[in-house]
Amino acid sequence: MSRKTRLTLLLSFILSFHLLPLSLFALPSIDQEGSSEAEAAAAAKGGFSEPEIVYYESDGLQMKAFLYKPAGKGPFPAYLWNHGSDQNPSDSHALAKFWNEHGFVFFVPVRRGHGGNPGDWIVEQEKILKANAANRRRIFSQIVQLHEKENDDVVAAYRWLRKQAFVDSKRVVVAGGSYGGIQTLLMAERDGREKLGVRCFIAMSPAAMSWGKGMLWGPRLSQAVKNATAPIFLLQAENDFNLGPSEVLGPQVDAKGPPSRHKVFPPHLVPGMDPSDHRQGHGKFFADSAAWQTEVLKYLEDCGFSVHPAQHASAIH
Question: What Cα–Cα distance (Å) separates residue 187 from each residue in 43, 72, 111?
Answer without folding.
Answer: 37, 30, 14
